[in-house]
Amino acid sequence: MSLRGKILAFFLLLLAALMLLLAGLVYRSTFDHSLQQVQTQLGFAHRVLANELQSRRQAQSAMAELIAKDFTLLGEIADLVASPQQEAQSLSAALESFASRSQAGFALVLAPDGLVLAGTSAELASGARLPWNGLLNEAEPDSAERLVVLDGRVLHVNLTPIFAPRPNLMGWLLMAFELGGSHLPDSQEVFRFPLQGLEQVALRAPLAGTDGDLQVLLMRSLSAELAHYQPLQWQLMLIFAAALVLAGLGALWIANTVSRPLAQMVENVRRIAGGDYQASVATAAGGEVGLLAHEFAAMQRGIAEREETIGFLAYRDPLTELANRNRFVAELQQALLQCQPGEGVAVLLMDLDNFKDLNDTLGHEAGDQLLRLLAGRLQELLRGGEQLARLGGDEFAVLVPHCHPGQVVPTAEHYRAALQQPFVVRGISMTLNATLGIALHPDHGESAGSLLQHAEVAMYWGKAQRSPYALYRPELDRHSLVRLALMSELKSAVEEGQLSLYFQPKLDIRARRLLGVECLVRWIHPVHGFVPPDEFIPLAEQTGNVCALTRWVVRTALAQSRAWHDQGLGLGLKTAINVSALDLADPGFAGYIAAQLAEHQVQPGSLVVEITESAVMADPEQALGQLQQLCELGVRLSIDDYGTGYSSMAQLKRLPVHELKIDKSFVQDLLSNPDDDIIVRSTVELGHNMGLRVVAEGVETDAVLQRLDQLGCDIAQGYLLSKPLAPQAFAEWLAQTHWGLPRLSA
């Protein structure tokens, strides 16, 4: 049942119940009042009857006493008593005369013993006895009266003694009057009974002076009495009918006032559930219903706004307002469904290079502004049908429908054009670099998920190769899986002894004598075999295991140095180890090296710590503190891969280092590339001017060694001397080398 129906039914049923209750109360009241009135009337009628009968009985008793004193009657009775043989005709005639004058039913003269001497009654002849026991006893010595029944007639008999004179009793005079009187009854009974379809009320009472079998019955119609209230009942019915109609109309109005806005709200709820938030609740109702409608409308607007926000956040990137990953995947799936045979769908995944460094340096707000600027440029480069999304962080994706294999590289170059012009953030002009990974349907995947995954694999491969873009190849998956496996197994490799330390010699170029060795970590995986350092060292830095790896290198290198010293090999060789930015961020790193030097009894000056420019630039102040402690300890410090990082002269002069190490990328083509020659010569001069020794790595030919000697470079390292060797192999090489051994004084 609807709310309107419930309200209407409630009001009508409530009013009907109240009316029925009121009608019942009115009927009960009128019925009780009518019954009480009838009972009162019957009681009054009974009292009137009793009074009438009493008056008549008194009059009849007085008349009987008067007749009993009549001299004529006394004479007749005396004659009859004196001569019982004579007939009583004259006495009967006298009695007939008295009975007629007094309107008595009959009259009798009784002997003193109660025998009938004469009378006018056919039922009680001469010589008969009275049928009413005890009446004669009641009359002695005075008169007595009683209501009796004789042959179906109700008689009031009065028995009066006849004296001649007193106390000589001559006989009795009995006068019988029909419907004789009686005094008030001893008890009454009121009862109701139907008679011809009408309710009757009767009063029944026994009359005193009888044997108990004579009662009076008074009756009155209760229905006739209730009929006087019939107009009132009709009026009440009319009032009730009018009240029902008015109540129904009022309830219907209230129900409509309440239910219509509520019904509209229910309809709006259904529409909201279906995603339609535009319907409004318009009502003129006031009070709570109007307030409810107003609040519902406000709630509806709030839900619509939140739904819009949720929808935006579900499919849009809040920073750039581009499509997010969810929206991009949905659009990619739709593009794959609509792709025709012979056509392809390309996914280009762009990831910025070194964005974290820029973000940390300039702050997140500047990084966000930079991402918004890049998003704007990429949007300007969009062509028909192509879609752009920000997948998260500094990753952007481009969907290129109807793309053929020959178009993917030009498309990648097209979007890399967004990086050609510098970006200005907070007044600082900066140039961004990025790597694009490319995956093409159907060659590189059938689903949206596989295409995104393969594009990401290609992108990371491109970063590793320092290529601006890379196209996915199936063999890259194996590389990606191996990379994941190595990340999880690197820690156990350190603990289980899968790592080993190799040594590559360093040469004093001017003296052509060995100066020291650089310790290089090698990982021989039980499944994948030899794992290059360029692969697992970055993994160690990403997973946070590089600190444990470095400490293992320190222990192993110093232990090996001590062992060679004890064996009399490599006396005077300096041992160089490489550390990362995370090592310099460890407050206990310098203390750990000091403890290991003391434990293995190695002179601090025999240890060289090589650090990269990027490690120093990650946190210059922290790195400076660690390097200062190492320098005070006596450990020699070297800047590794100089020229490939972002260090400045101001930073370089603050560092307590002892040597610069030129990256092999500038040394290997030294003879064929004039620019490399200039860079090496400038670096050597810079280092010498700052009081530093200069090391060149990647020396593979004697000609390069000669050129380095001409440029004034101090130390050489590379395959010209030896490739990295295991400890035993290095000991054997050291025993056979033609290079001069270090002097003990060194």
Structural overview:
This protein has 24 helices and 24 strands. Among the domains are: 45-178, 2-Layer Sandwich (Beta-Lactamase); 325-473, Alpha-Beta Plaits (2-Layer Sandwich); 501-735, EAL domain (TIM Barrel, Alpha-Beta Barrel). It is rod-shaped, with a radius of gyration of 69 Å. Strand 23, helix 23 (702-711) and strand 24 form a beta-alpha-beta unit. The protein is 50% helix and 21% strand. The model is unreliable at 180-186 (pLDDT under 50). Strands 16-17-19-20-21-22-23-24 form an 8-stranded mixed beta barrel. The protein has a 5-stranded antiparallel sheet with strand order 2-1-5-4-3. Strands 10-11-9-14-15 form a 5-stranded mixed sheet, sandwiched between helices. It is an alpha/beta fold.
